[in-house]
Amino acid sequence: MFWFILRRCGSAVLVLFLSSVLIFLGIRALPGDPASVMAGQEASQAAIEAIRKEFGLDKPLPAQYLDYVGQTLTGNFGRSTQDQLPVADILAERLPVTLELSLLAMVVAIVIGVGAGIVAAVRRGKLADYVATAFGLAGLSVPHFWLGLLGILLFAVTWRVLPASGYVPFTEDPVQNLQRMILPALVLGTGFAAILMRQTRSAMLGALSADYVRTARSKGLSEAKVVGAHALRNSLTTVVTVLGLQLGALISGAVVTEQIFVIPGFGKLTVDAVLTRNYPVIQAVVLVTVIGYVLVNLLVDIAYAFLNPRIRLSGGTRD
Amino acid sequence: MSLLEITNLKVSFDTEDGQVQAVRDISLSLDEGEILALCGESGCGKSVTAMSVPRLLPPETTRLSGSIKLDGRELTTLPEAEMRKVRGKTVSVVFQEPMTSLNPSFTVGYQIAEVLRRHEGLSRQAAARRAVELLELVGIPAPARRVKEYPHQLSGGMRQRVMIAIAVACSPRVLIADEPTTALDVTIQAGVLDVFRDLRDRLGTAIILITHDLGVVADIADRAVVMYAGRAVEQAPVGGLFAGPRHPYTLGLMNALPSAAVDGRLAEIPGLVPSPLSDPDECAFQDRCARAQADCRLSRPPLTHQADDHLAACFHPGGQS
């Protein structure tokens, strides 16, 4: 198990290294010379050279890359071209907002999606199955922005039970925070729940027809144990895979959802940065997104090993 | 009175093509400590007959009539919650597929202990200790190490022994073994059969052995029921059956054994099994039978006594040879 996790961590570091090279080269492949832009139109050649030297742009590319990695590792992402604030501070302010939103959306998706998937599989071909499948299809088809607008219309305008938009930090007022987060989380979690429901349902259908489920029944176990322990345990690998794959979609979904509900999160930051060509921010946003993906995939791999003894046991000794 | 009494059992399944009659009409009994072989080719209804006892057939599509009495208690009408107390405790099953019948996500020790905790009320620790003893009982070396392993770490023969350990954990009165050796190497088959014999001798477990392998029948069974198209066609103690098969179908099965081959070629039974969708009033085997005459097509031959304990359903039974 130890070796398994170590190996996975090793490949995660490799992916991070390659992505950082790509981000670094990508920025440098953009047309234009940053030094002459910074110096202004009427600057002398000497002034441009001075700026170049100051920012280390006269060094060869590998040396520049090492500088970039060193700066990044010490938490220095540069300054936003918009308001000259350190990018690290902006990230520290925006990231927790999106993390909270994604986490809540994921909880919504797991509770609704996995629950409905199990019920649909157990009650296959019955009313509950049709209802769950129909809602699943609807949840997949309805776009976030429409669902968000509909939610605001119903809950904030017609019924007046929830605020329409805005954000209050959890540390300031937890109740207000949750009141404002619940609708975005539901909107963001719905599509995710639909995908989880379908995957859970098909995985559970496969597991329920397996020979080992028949064995479990022949032992006289209750149906709750047969379904909840024997069948579900073998379906969880699929559920975890989908969770990992969809977390990426959750981030892009957050972009739209945050825009609708005017939540100052990571997604809104990304949109604003792209619209204003704020390169240092874009660069940092891309890197943080990559780190997010890599971490999630690492967690998924480790979860696999916990769920599936065949992976766990072959990971350390053989293969 | 016998331990298990099956009377006029009929089982059919709802399918898109109509009602498939898997078991058309069968009555049989099983005594304490007896090993009864149910034999016949694929689709003859032997597995369905046996799986009707613990009610392990899919409830939505199965239609069942007749009576199944265990120790005088009717099982077919027992509430599901009561039936769950019977399954794994009084009646247990060893399935055909050792490779897929164990749950890949749990240790074999857990899967054995589970049934002990369910029926015997053992604590986690006591059940785990008993699991080690059971693995030893079914002949698995180094059982203390093996209980901590997962099914994929064991060979097919080992897994089948684990299945047997689960089945006998609560000392059942009746053990149903569905083709328990079919998926195993010949060298391992004998060992598994020894485990069954040993259980019967030590615990007095009655065993219903489902098999199409007459070699296995001759090796271990006390009595055999030969089934064809959902009915019993011959029923006899094993010695009498092999000494003088009365039904032409039984004879055909024996001639199809490799040891009976003439000129290195196995004798096959010509023709096909009748459709399970219809059930005309005639001998189901007459199409394929060398001895068939006009009367075989007019009515169905009843199961009648040919000699003591030897029954056959044939108008023109073979003599003792």
Query: What's the tally of helices of chain A?
Result: 13
**Strands of the largest sheet of chain B, in order across it?**
6-7-8-3-9-10-12-11
- What letter string, H or E per element, gives the SSE order of chain B? EEEHEEHEHHHHEHEHEEHHEE
**Strand residues, percent of chain B:** 15-25%
The unreliable regions of chain B are none
Mean pLDDT of chain B: 90
Mean pLDDT of chain A: 85
Number of strands of chain B: 12
- Range of helix content of chain A: over 70%
User: Radius of gyration of chain A, rounded?
Assistant: 25 Å
Described by strand count, sense and barrel closure, the largest sheet of chain B is:
8 strands, mixed
Structural class of chain B: alpha/beta
What report would you give on this structure?
The complex is a heterodimer of chains A (319) and B (321). Chain A has 319 residues and is mainly α. Chain A is built from 13 helices and no strands. The longest helix of chain A has 39 residues. Chain B is an alpha/beta fold and 321 residues long. Chain B contains ten helices and twelve strands. In chain B, the strands form two sheets. Chain B has an eight-stranded mixed beta sheet, with helices on both faces. Chains A and B meet through helix 9, helix 10 and helix 13 of A and helix 2 and helix 3 of B.
Provide keyphrases for this structure.
heterodimer; A: 319 residues; mainly alpha; 13 helices; 79% helix; 0% strand; B: 321 residues; alpha/beta; four-stranded antiparallel sheet; globular
Secondary structure: elements and pairs:
The complex is a heterodimer of chains A (319) and B (321).
Chain A: H1 2-29, H2 34-39, H3 45-54, H4 61-73, H5 87-122, H6 127-141, H7 144-158, H8 174-208, H9 211-218, H10 223-261, H11 266-275, H12 279-307, H13 309-316
Helix pairs in contact in A: 1-12, 5-6, 5-8, 5-10, 6-8, 7-8, 7-10, 8-10, 9-10, 10-11, 10-12, 11-12, 12-13
Chain B: E1 4-15, E2 18-30, E3 35-39, H1 46-52, E4 62-70, E5 73-74, H2 80-86, E6 91-94, H3 108-119, H4 124-137, H5 143-146, H6 156-168, E7 174-178, H7 186-203, E8 206-211, H8 214-220, E9 223-228, E10 231-237, H9 238-243, H10 248-255, E11 304-307, E12 310-312
Parallel strand pairs in B: 3-8, 3-9, 6-7, 7-8
Antiparallel strand pairs in B: 1-2, 1-4, 4-5, 9-10, 10-12, 11-12
Helix pairs in contact in B: 3-4, 3-6, 4-6, 6-7
